[in-house]
Design goal:
Chain lengths: 122, 110
Amino acid sequence: QLQLQESGPGLVKPSETLSLTCTVSGGSISSRSYYWACIRQPPGKGLEWIGSISYSGSTFYNPSLKSRVTISVDSSKNQFSLKLHSVTAADTAVYYCARPIAAPRHDAFDLWGQGTMVTVFS
Amino acid sequence: QSVLTQPPSVSAAPGQKVTISCSGSSSNIGNNYISWYQHLPGTAPKLLIYDDDKRPSGIPDRFSGSKSGTSATLGITGLQTGDEADYYCGTWDTSLIAVVFGGGTKLTVL
């Protein structure tokens, strides 16, 4: 059974780069043309899509975050990774990895990781 | 400010029916499929409805979705205390070239 697992630093200092890795287990990240997504939820707020990447490296980013976001994929490790640069307290959130219900669509996420809390804290 | 608009909260008694609305525009709901998610605290969101009105395997038929123009509705019948959660709508926005979500609706089962 396919599963997603996030791993991240927990704490990041303001102005630094938040790095999050999503590991796919129970299947290959390269099977079918799925767009693997990063989504976050700040405390007390709603869900926010950060961006998505295909196994071949094609990316789509949230326009409001595009200037600070890089999502990459490492098929050999069955992982995709998020880098969010120049973080502020507003980037404090639970960060999720997710996959849509079908390829190659971008929405309708039926597979989620458990989420990892990242706090921007000096 | 979310691209999709949902009421902040709704409430109903156990056993009753509730509806949650999601309003958007022609660049999102009007021309793309809508999805609905249930989010319980401390857990990952769960997909309840996709493609406007389809249920993934394992989702009971108490949950239903509909769409008309640039608005969509999630319906839940036979409310249970376990249905207390935050509910989100989401879709693709063709103009923004992005996935967009509503601000979420907190359901209270009185």
